[in-house]
TrEMBL record:
Residues in HTH tetR-type domain copies: 9-69
Official protein name in the record: TetR family transcriptional regulator
Keywords of the record: DNA-binding
KW DNA-binding (keyword) present: yes
Record's signal peptide: none
Species whose genome carries this gene: Pseudodesulfovibrio cashew
A GO term for molecular function: DNA binding
Annotated region of DNA binding: 32-51
Amino acid sequence: MEHEGKRKRRSREDLLKAGLNILARHGEGALTIESLCKRLNVTKGSFYHHFGSKDDFRRHLLDYWAREHTWRFIEFCDREDSAEERYRNLDAVSQETDDDVEVAVRTWAQRDPQAREYQERIDRMRIEYLEKLYSEMLGGSERASVFALLEYAAFVGSRQIMPGLDKARIRELLGLWTEMLKPYLKEGRDETA
């Protein structure tokens, strides 16, 4: 059993996970070396073993967020052959995202050019992925980009509403969206048949 006060060796990923947690719970202003070290009970030397500076940490934190909240999901979904199955998987994994992290990164991006650059890149990547799925499901329809943008705007907006929507309500809205799309999805299949 670990003694209280005894310092435990922490990995780079431990620091990044803790950083996302601080960001989500307290905002970008709380992302200090001191708060991170205190949360994990590590020394500043431990921090500097993994990161050259606070700015270096923040850049790696944005990379980590992009990987864990976008790239990992896309890689998981792309294991499936059909666009419909990839879309269902994307729906399932998007429900696993920490909405507080999404909101905190977007808030950070309003004030910080580096965070904004990451947010814009991730938004483009997510919209392009949705557009690719819709294009496959709709048989290459020009509507794919419109549907992708509408769905992504709903994803972002549902996390910005105050007070926030709970996961059940978001699932309900997504279910309604899927029902509304069915005629277009059938039409797309008919055109390619």
